Amino acid sequence: MPDYDVSAALDTDYYSVFADIDPADREMWGRARQFVDEALPQMNDYWDRAEYPVHLVKRLGELNLLTDGLEVPGLEPMSPLAAGLVNMEISRGDGSLGTVVAVQGGLALRSIAFHGSPEQKERWLGPLARGEELGAFALTEPDHGSDSVSLETRARREGGEWVIDGEKKWIGNGASGGVTVVWARDDDGDVRGFLVEQDTPGYEAEVIEGKGSLRAVHQARIRLNGVRIPLECVLPGAKTFKDTSRVLVATRLGVAWSALGHATAAYEAALNYAQERIQFGKPLVKFQLVQDRLSQMLAELTSMQLHCVHLARLEAEGRMRPTQASMAKYHNTRKARLIASTARDLLGGNGILLENHVIRHMMDIEAIHTYEGTESVQALLIGRDVTGVGAFS
Prior knowledge:
The chain is α+β, with helices and mostly antiparallel strands.
């Protein structure tokens, strides 16, 4: 048994940011809370063993928590705010599970929903959204992360087939079975998306080992050696890198929500711990320095909430600009790192124990601070927007 129980959700909302949300959005948030209550007791062990609890992906689908605001026939729709709340809540439980939502719903499902043919949508949207099939999004390569537009994977036409050659890295679900959306340049040099089932000959994937972050979800290094797929496996709506970017922009705000979930977990664990931990004859909460740290964390957390909720409303109105999503991601992952670090320190030696959760969130936030565009790339996107001058090279 742990010495302290710091995992209780406190529904921190100092500015009443969530007080007036729609009942349907709140119900979706409650459904995500139900999932976290079921999953959280298992996650420290999975994280420690670097084992992927694939059965929980199916559970997410059963609860309709994988659509990420997309319309999928037969499934209840989810508003942008509800999608954000779900992302936040699941990440409050565990970052690996939050990444599952980002990959399965945010990237793979969205690629097909935005750019797929009617037949592709009929084949894949339902199974991916219900967690019956796993989906991966393969853009990043061993030599191309932030400069993903420079990808080297190639797809050439040969008769009635596409033939794909190249490598990908850091691909969530890429070695777990299912379908991978592979981004490659075609004969004309245009960036296209291809649906590659992972049992296709020539598709070789290995799980990346030795991670210190997001250990309970598998990312893969993929080698595509003469992978042959039918012509109908190309996404007809994706013809340039701008189409790829449309998917990435739509999910970037989701990363800001995920960071908010991690920060909420860290802050609430610190507050719970400070109320329970006795030092020098009194609870930590009675010390001035501890109250100062809790106040600092709460102020940062509140700013993160305001970013997310405001942009969710802009997105619902069709008014969110790509660089606004970049600003939210830039701001929130930075603040989440700060809050997690402060919480870890406040817990003292107990802060490095998995049973107290903070160290897991602290390590996992390191990954989401990088993926979907590093801090530096987001800063350059924002800088170009406000100055009119590009500084990428």
